[in-house]
Specification:
Layout lengths: L4 E5 L16 E2 L2 E2 H13 L7 E4 L12 E2 L8 H14 L4 E5 L7 H9 L6 E3 L1 E2 L2 E2 L3 E4 L1 H13 L5 H8 L6 E3 L4 H5 L7 H6 L2
Helix pairs in contact: 1-3, 2-4, 4-5
Amino acid sequence: MALPVVGIFVGGRGLRMGGVAKGLLLRDGRTLIDRMVEACQVAAAPQQLADVYLVGNAVAYVGTPLPALADDPAGRGPIGGLRVLLQAAAARGRDAVALAVDMPDPNAELIGRLYREQSGAALLAPREAERWQPLFARYRPAAVLPALEAALAAGESSLQRIFSRLVGGPELVAELVLSAGERTALRDWDRPSDMDATP
């Protein structure tokens, strides 16, 4: 099985965190970006994950030895980052996995499920009520890029709109069903109070 191209989304100015890049926050003495990269590699075992990118404005991560993909278009939120990630994956003939950097306890087993489950799906992600988790998701570029480009052309920037453009269409949007325990692995650090609430 060919492993996906992985994009760790580091965009955003971290304003609610006092201007600190969220991936550089510490959890148990290690940065969130280091914890996420390790989880991505463990999830790939026994294979070696070859293509991991920082996606978005990665200026704060100059000490992180990963290549970066800048949003295109810039200034439209993560849709520009997803676009360049899908283009990079398409060039390698592989799926793409998008992950947010601000999860303090990334679950390697759950990331491995994203890599491997429901291989026929054009898009695989958890869902809560009607909202999908676009930054914990696997995308097939050939199926998703046209929907993304259509959303951009329509002036849309919400990643939810990409899901809604594909749901019910000829391509399969599949839900990654999670247990209650697995859902806790997707909690993120969006504001200082989230850090205080993490056990």
